[in-house]
Amino acid sequence: MPPRARRSLELIPNEIARKMTFRKRKKSIYKKADELSKLCDIDVCLIIYEADQKKGRAIQSETWPQDSTEFNRIFNKYKASKDIHVPGLKQNFDLSDFYNAAKKEDVDRKFENLYPTWDDRIDEFS
Questions:
Q1: CATH code where residue 51 lies
Q2: Major location, coarse class (predicted)?
């Protein structure tokens, strides 16, 4: 059996086909999340945002698991894990954490270039 041809990852120009693909893929990712949760005995939650910009409606979001108390339990567990540092355990980061860390490093680097370190100042006055 020959290998399947690769699809290019581009926006699907036909709106009807795009919506159909979205529905199919959303159903598939929910199934994968359920399987991952059951087979590996782990907590999994998903947040999917669907924007219908052409009709001017607000962004719609869906969550998995559908039970809001279960979703909130998993999400609060995730938020709490960001604040706890356990040796040997990887911390959870999101895009804003990464951006803020990079921004802080950039500011620190600029500050070091502008002002000599405290040790250098002490050496000047000795």
A1: 3.40.1810.10
A2: nucleus
Its pTM stands at 0.58
In tens digits, the chain (126 residues) has pLDDT values of: 677 777 778 888 898 998 899 999 999 999 999 999 999 999 999 999 876 666 666 677 889 998 999 999 998 888 887 666 666 556 666 667 767 777 777 766 766 666 655 555 555 555
Overall number of domains in the chain: 2
Residues 55 and 21 in one domain: yes
Write out the E strands in the chain. 46-50, 60-64
Same domain, yes or no: 103 and 79: no
Residue 27, CA atoms < 13 Å, CB-side half-sphere: 5
